[in-house]
Amino acid sequence: MKCDVTNNSNMDMQDLSPLIDDLVSSIQDTMEIESLPAVTLHDDPQNSEDLLGKTAYYDPNNKVITIYVTNRHPKDIMRSIAHEMVHHSQNERGEFDSIGNVGEGYAQADDHLRNMEKEAYLKGNMCFRDWEDGHKKQMMESIHRKNSFKRRTTTMKIHNWKNDELNRLLMEKFGLSEKVGDGSPEKKPGEMTADAKAKSDEQRPDDTIRAAAEKLGINTKGMTPDQIAAALRKEEPTAQQGRNAKRIAAQKEKDAALRKKQAELANQEPQDEACVSDKEDKNLLLSQEETNESFRRRIRTMLDR
Q1: Which among 146, 161, 176 is the end of a domain?
Q2: Are strands 56-59 and 38-42 parallel, antiparallel or unpaired?
Q3: CB 168: neighbour CB atoms within 10 A?
Q4: Whole domain around residue 18: which residue ranges?
Q5: DSSP per position, 259-301
Q6: What is the pTM of this model?
Q7: Span 35-43, mean pLDDT?
């Protein structure tokens, strides 16, 4: 049930009105109030300038709560409503049937009225505090749900990108992608050619990983994609070292042939292959090891994410 709120002030009620309805409904449930009072918001500039001016009052005969709103914070306005709602609950219980003088100092002069004020201050403030904390919790949960949905959407996009990037890197590394040539447009960094892209679309990432593993001589029969990826991480350094060794041997053969040719031209005995300087071997091995480590780090990073 909505509260009947009359705005006789210049205050904009667009945001405050639903909060007042929610607060009054919460207090109605807590205090077991049968019917809701009317609420009137009133402007009084002269009263607002008085340091000890009026903030609100309850009319038990007409069951109307009047709130002075000039220059007040909305939260303070709702706290006054909560206080007067307790007085309305007292009115329903008949507490106003036998009251005495309600003039200045009534809360000190009359024990019954003093107890009524004690209840209004205690229960009114606590009802408002409980409602405020619950409302803030609902707002935070709503924000959390929205943010969680955004995070899930962003995470899915990242995972899709990682799968596509892993697929491209593996195809590039193991020669499954098409080379650009024959007048075809130059592809941008990270972009596959049209034929390679079509082949990639037809081939799932799991199939690409399996093809890469089989090219390294790994028996993938009965293995899951995660097991294949683990085998790739384990076998790739060994395979890369084998390729490095072949390149080093080929380079040594070229160097030996060159020295032999030079020796023949100079009528000198060819130098033995073992005469290759240690410095050249070390530099070549270092270069290959750096290449190996760079590739291993890239693939491992992509597969571990």
Answers
A1: 146
A2: unpaired
A3: 21
A4: 5-97+107-146
A5: HHHHHHHTT-PPPPGGGS-HHHHHHHHHHHHHHHHHHHHHHHH
A6: 0.47
A7: 92
